[in-house]
């Protein structure tokens, strides 16, 4: 093996640098570089080895990888950086020296870490000015301020003392109830003073929420600014607090213990879950929930507490008190949907109107799986990547699925289709589903086909046909080459398809699925839009109209659009009495009203003006919209 040891920047060869080759703790090989900076190690056995190089007054680094296999020729180069030594005295607040510490070094925008011990009181640093600090190596409860050291000459030695202080913070422990087998809880820490205080670059954010499990019952917040903090316990990530405590932080760690209270009958819901043999399910830890009232929806995860009798309990109130009081007023009907998934049994979903039922029994059937074959699958490199997933359209218990947003209609993630055009989905609970086929051709998963199926226990098989894909070429006369036009299936698409206009004024898009699309191209008069139908003419001339409306296309009677009162073909022409004048003003008005609970949308239906109340914040989830909104002209 041959290598070259050079000096950084000037590229000078270094002679007399020791080269060591180690493969065990008792065997080693050494070599000294010659005047040209070369070294050679021979008779290296065929094992994995580590090469180390050292030279007094330098830090020697490997350019690539210093680990290689013996028994074959190899070339490994090192770089030597002129350096000096810093002799450190690291002291605890009582004046004693810790057994070891982690030294943080920063210079010229870089940061590195070195280990300091009493037996090795020096660290080696490149020439220059560095900021150094220390953290004790025991439990990192102490740290020092940053100190400046300067090394001007190779081999120079300087001394520095780093005095450790307590890192302000909160160290706590949560006691879980003995009568409940609790899976998890959440703890957060927030300043109680008015206004937000930015933490330093090396601080832990005080507002961060920690996820605790019974085997991890402690939590720690370090490097907090002095002041008062509120530590709060939650059973669910977005649910109401169940316990809180105020802690004053000064210059060290403040310790506290908190109790997670028992769930009580009047404030809890109960679930009895049984496997296909009628035995209680023992491996449930958490459940996904969805709370719906009026046009509002809140989703999250709640921990389940298992009682000794085998039942699972969770708090009946999921939202903070103010939001829950608003949701449960006399005019609102609150629907709570839950989804549980024991290992190996698939998912089970159930729903109830809040206040009518707080005890549920779920019996799991033998799980089902489905082998999906995509017919007409094209394995050519030009074909888009295909994937499939299952969407439940009704629970096994026969409860309404609420396809326009209920958790009963929630979808699993897509699974890629293999090279043979097949894949297997499951396990899931038997019942009614839709197989959703999607392609990834323009950056996102785009649905291109779906099929309703009923899954029986055990193995199932289904074939779903790949739809025909279409291409579209748009002629953009007068458009600047290199500019982009955009094409939407819906105005709410997060990422419209973008195509670049070539020198002949053309732009082409491949792999379009059947449907209606809107094409837009910015120009000096704003944004012009044109609607096209796919399949249709393979080539169209871009003839834009000024955008001053959104045209509603209703595709599901259960979607948010239909439930709000919209009909297919309606034109949305304004918000709260302010009518749209152009595309820019329209988007500004829609965005500025998106946070409002409800707004009055001005509608044009068959030449008649009317108003419909809606919540724009819910329109961002297109899968629950039950239709599309395309930019249009009146």
Give the strand content: over 45%
The whole-number mean of residue pLDDT values reads 77
Let me know the number of strands.
52
SS-based class: mainly beta
Distance between the termini: 78 Å
Low-pLDDT segments, ≥5 res: 1-10, 20-26, 195-206, 394-411
Helix content: under 10%
**Overall shape:** extended
Helix tally equals 3
Largest sheet: 7 strands, mixed
Radius of gyration: 33 Å
Summarize the structure in words:
- There is one protein chain.
- It contains three helices and 52 strands.
- The strands form twelve sheets. Strands 1, 4, 6, 8, 11, 13 and 15 form a seven-stranded mixed beta sheet that branches. Strands 47, 48, 49, 50, 51 and 52 form a six-stranded antiparallel beta sheet that branches. It has a five-stranded mixed beta sheet with strand order 17-27-28-24-31, with no helix packed on it.
- A hairpin with a 5-residue loop joins strand 27 and strand 28.
- The longest helix is centred in the last third of the chain and has 10 residues, at about 585-590.
- The chain is extended.
- Residues about 1-10, about 20-25, about 195-205 and about 395-410 have low confidence and may be disordered.
């Amino acid at each position: 093996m041959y290598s070259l040891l050079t000096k950084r920047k000037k590229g000078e060869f270094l002679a007399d640098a020791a080269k060591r080759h180690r493969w065990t703790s008792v065997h080693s090989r050494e070599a000294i570089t010659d005047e040209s900076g070369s070294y050679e190690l021979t008779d290296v056995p065929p094992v994995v080895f580590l090469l180390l190089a050292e030279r007094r007054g330098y830090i020697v680094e490997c350019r690539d990888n210093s680990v290689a296999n013996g028994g074959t020729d190899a070339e490994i180069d090192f770089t030597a950086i002129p350096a000096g030594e810093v002799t450190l005295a690291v002291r605890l607040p009582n004046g004693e020296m810790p057994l070891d510490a982690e030294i943080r070094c920063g210079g010229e925008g870089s940061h590195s870490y070195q280990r300091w011990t009493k037996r090795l009181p020096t660290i080696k640093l490149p020439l220059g000015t560095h900021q150094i600090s220390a953290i004790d190596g025991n439990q990192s409860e102490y740290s020092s301020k940053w100190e400046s050291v300067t090394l001007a000459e190779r081999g120079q030695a300087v001394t520095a003392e780093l005095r450790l202080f307590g890192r302000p913070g909160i160290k706590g422990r949560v006691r879980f109830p003995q009568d409940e087998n609790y899976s998890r809880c959440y703890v957060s820490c927030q300043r109680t003073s008015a206004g937000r205080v930015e933490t330093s670059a090396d601080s832990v954010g005080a507002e961060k929420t920690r996820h605790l499990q019974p085997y991890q019952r402690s939590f720690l917040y370090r490097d907090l600014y002095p002041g008062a903090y509120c530590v709060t316990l939650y059973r669910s990530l977005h649910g109401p607090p169940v316990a809180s405590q105020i802690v004053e932080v000064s210059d060290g760690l403040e310790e506290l213990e908190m109790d997670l209270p028992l769930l009580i009958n009047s404030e809890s819901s109960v679930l009895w879950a049984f496997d296909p043999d009628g035995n209680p399910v023992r491996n449930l830890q958490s459940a996904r929930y969805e709370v719906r009232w009026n046009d509002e929806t809140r989703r999250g995860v709640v921990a389940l507490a298992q009682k000794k009798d085998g039942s699972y309990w969770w708090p009946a109130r999921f939202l903070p008190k103010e939001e829950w009081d608003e949701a449960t007023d006399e005019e609102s009907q609150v629907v709570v949907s839950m989804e549980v998934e024991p290992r190996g049994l698939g998912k089970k979903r159930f729903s109830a109107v809040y206040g009518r039922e707080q005890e549920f029994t779920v019996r799991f059937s033998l799980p089902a799986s489905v082998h999906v074959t995509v017919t007409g699958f094209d394995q050519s490199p030009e074909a888009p990547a295909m994937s499939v997933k299952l969407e439940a359209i009704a629970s096994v218990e026969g409860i309404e699925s609420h396809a326009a947003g209920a958790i009963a209609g929630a979808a699993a993630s897509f699974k890629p289709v293999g090279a043979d055009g097949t894949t297997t989905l499951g396990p899931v609970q038997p019942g009614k589903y839709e197989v959703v086929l999607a392609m990834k051709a323009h950056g996102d998963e785009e649905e291109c086909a779906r099929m309703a199926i009923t899954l029986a226990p055990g193995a199932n098989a289904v074939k779903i046909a790949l739809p025909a894909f279409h291409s579209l070429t748009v002629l953009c006369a007068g458009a600047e080459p290199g500019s982009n036009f955009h094409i939407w299936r819906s105005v709410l698409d997060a990422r419209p398809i973008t195509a670049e206009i070539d020198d002949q004024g053309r732009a082409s898009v491949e792999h379009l699925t059947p449907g209606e699309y809107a094409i837009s191209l910015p120009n000096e008069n704003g944004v012009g839009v044109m609607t096209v139908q796919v399949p249709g003419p393979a080539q169209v001339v871009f003839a834009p109209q000024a955008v001053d409306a959104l045209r509603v296309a209703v595709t599901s009677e259960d979607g948010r659009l239909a439930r709000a009162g919209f009909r297919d073909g309606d034109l949305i022409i304004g918000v709260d009495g302010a009518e749209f004048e152009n595309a820019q003003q329209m988007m500004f008005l829609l965005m500025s009203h998106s946070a409002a609970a409800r707004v009055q949308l001005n509608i044009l239906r068959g030449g008649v003006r009317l108003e419909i109340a809606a919540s724009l914040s819910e329109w961002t989830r297109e899968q629950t919209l039950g239709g599309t909104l395309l930019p249009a002209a009146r």
